[in-house]
Design goal:
177 residues, mainly alpha
Length: 177
């Protein structure tokens, strides 16, 4: 992270990274496929947390309640002590065009997985997709707010607030229709 911040992601080489941690470049490639993986690795753990949250939701839970359970499970990945690290990581991503292009793919995987898990619980296709995509959007908005300069609220509090705003927005749209 320090190399990416001081030199920029695009100007940091795998040789630079390997040297900084006392490895050979060959050893680096035994652990990572490329320098992006150093920064973006762990996405599968986040996806797993979303799915674990779906799995622990009550059998009779509504799609929105299931998504809320998934969001609660994911929130455990973001305790207060990770805020600075997460913010630094996101700044590196934001400053690199190549990494910014990966952002939509990053959120597509958990949304696809959650939608499939919802369908396996009997939720109809469109509802499952809307609920999953909405949950991932809530996560993204809460995360961006959480890492913003000066923000002090906890990640779980922000997720609940953003989800509440989404529910209120949908309720307003229903009343207006």
């Amino acid at each position: 992270m320090d190399l990416y911040i001081s030199r920029g992601f695009d100007r940091t080489t795998t040789a630079d990274i390997a040297q900084a941690v006392g490895l050979t470049e060959r050893t680096f490639f035994r652990h990572f496929t490329d320098k992006r993986e150093v920064l973006l690795g762990g996405q599968e753990l986040l996806e797993r947390a979303f799915l674990d949250g779906v799995a622990v939701a009550a059998p009779d839970a509504s799609p929105l309640e299931i998504v809320e359970s998934a969001l609660s499970a994911v929130a455990t990945f973001f305790p207060a002590e990770r805020r600075d690290h997460s913010g630094r990581r996101q700044r590196i991503i934001s400053e690199s065009p190549a990494l910014r292009e990966r952002e939509p793919l990053k959120s597509a995987r958990p949304a696809t997985a959650v939608a499939a898990a919802l369908r396996s619980r009997g939720v109809p296709e469109v509802t499952a997709t809307l609920a999953a995509e909405s949950g991932v959007t809530v996560f993204g908005v809460a995360f961006a707010t959480w890492i913003a300069d000066g923000e002090e609220r906890s990640f779980p509090d922000l997720e609940r607030e953003v989800l509440g705003r989404l529910v209120a927005l949908a309720a307003d749209a229903t009343r207006s229709a």
